[in-house]
Amino acid sequence: MSLPAALARNVGRRYLLRPQSTSTSLGRRSLFTIIHQGHEGWRLSFGRNPVKLEPGLRLMLPLYHTVQEVDMRERSVNITDLASFTSDNVPVLISGSLFFRVRNSYHACFSVDDFTSNVRNIGTSAVRSVIGVFSYDDVISDRNKINNQLHAVIGGSIEKWGVDCTRFEIQNFKPSNREVEKQLELQMAAERDRRKQLLDTQALVNVAEGHKQRTILESEGALQSQLNRAAGQKQKLIIESEGSMEAARNEGKALALQIEVVAKTLANGTGAPTEKDRTMALTALVELKRLEQLRAIANGSGNSTYFFGDAAKGVAGDAYNIDNMEKWKSSISGRKGPALDQTAV
């Protein structure tokens, strides 16, 4: 093999095996360049006429071509110990990470110089601006809201460079000096005491409200109980009166039937009983009832003596006497022990 061929082969092998830098501008020149996976390249001819290069082995003529390679993967820049002020004038130190991804490699190469540094500067400025809108307590309690606000502000600023802001995450947030931290601790302690007093007061109010509701419910329950008892008593009286009415009606029917049977018996089958037969039947039934009552009085355990005069005679008088006898019979049945002598005229 001749010396020129060997030199050419060694030079080509050296160009093929040389690793390529991932920076935005490749200063070293070679016959070939390698665009890595996840990257895009732009080849310029004497500094103009850009041609997009996909991942793989690509031609690059020395002095004639210039290649810029752009990382299309998601990356992040760290912003550490950034001094800022909240809306309530509290000096704080903020640390966070800004995540971004190149969407359009052409604009990232030719619309801005060193887009990574500019993204960092935009992120720093946006953090100071957004933190100045929120109070210290808001930053402590709701970081997601601040992250979303930063994402919107930064994304709108770097979109024209072909770069998208995927998210911003606040990692650390603290007062800038110890004196401010002590003041904030005292403020938070006072706020906790205030909230505790509010909770205690609300608890007492809830207890009083509970007693009030209990008293109201008990009074309503007592009132309803009385109404229920009154309604029950009323219904009981109505039912008892209806029962008494029905019993009287049945007794009247039974008495009329007895009178009719006795009157037919007195008529001896000669035909329909007359009013005289019915009157005699009624008188006989009254006498039987009287005898039954007298028998009950005679068999009673009391030693009372009763005198029945002739003042009440006739059918009406008999009914009166029967009623009195029923009363006397009830009084004798309910009496216990020896009874005093009584005289009834």
What report would you give on this structure?
- Among the domains are: 3-71, no CATH class; 75-176, Band 7 domain (Tetrahydropterin Synthase, Chain A, 2-Layer Sandwich), CATH 3.30.479; 274-333.
- Strand 6 (75-85) and strand 7 (91-102) form a beta hairpin.
- It contains eight helices and eight strands, in the order αβββββββααααβααα.
- It is elongated and about 160 Å long.
- The model is unreliable at 1-27, 311-316 and 336-345 (pLDDT under 50).
- The strands form three sheets. Strands 3-2-5 form a three-stranded antiparallel sheet. It has a three-stranded antiparallel sheet with strand order 6-7-8.
- Helix 6 (178-267) crosses helix 7 (275-298).
- With 345 residues, the chain is of the alpha+beta class.
- Helices cover 57% and strands 19% of the residues.
Fill in the CATH topology of the domain at 75-176.
Tetrahydropterin Synthase, Chain A
Q: What name goes with the CATH superfamily of the domain at 75-176?
A: Band 7 domain
Summed over residues and divided by their number, the pLDDT gives a mean of: 78
**Total E-strand runs:** 8
Alpha-carbon distance between the two ends: 171 Å
SSE ordering: HEEEEEEEHHHHEHHH
Shape: elongated
- Low-confidence runs of at least 5 consecutive residues: 1-27, 311-316, 336-345
Category by helix and strand content? alpha+beta
Helical segment tally?
8
Helical coverage, percent range: 55-70%
Task: Give the CATH class of the domain at 75-176.
Answer: Alpha Beta
* Strand composition percent: 15-25%
Q: How many whole angstroms does the radius of gyration measure?
A: 59 Å
Major β-sheet annotation? 3 strands, antiparallel
Identify the CATH architecture of the domain at 75-176. 2-Layer Sandwich
- Biggest sheet strand order reads 3-2-5
